[in-house]
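Subgroup meeting minutes
Present: P.N., E.W., G.H.
Scribe: E.W.

1. P.N. recapped why we're keeping a running log of single-chain structure predictions: easier to compare across weeks, and new members can see raw inputs and outputs side by side.
2. G.H. added today's entry (99 aa).
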Amino acid sequence: MSRNKKLDIITFKVDAPLRRAMQGIANRSEFIRAAVLSALENVCPLCKGTGIMTPDQHRHWIAFSKNHSLTECADCHAVHMVCGVKGVGKRPAGRRSHP
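Output recorded in log:
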């Protein structure tokens, strides 16, 4: 991290078991920074991690879901969206769904 960067301090409370679990971590600040950045990479783009849609988001979802569905991948079992519009979202022949 650059010395010229001004850092903000953010604090949060932890319960005793989490505090004990983190006692052996040499640089807790760096560990927490890395954990937060990793978690942010996996936040739902729609709800931003709240797990709840706003009424407006729900209205948009209802319209979107008329031509899309949620499907479980046969290979990895991840639930994903599938476009139901004819001819859209089709993979070229011979291509697998996973790299």
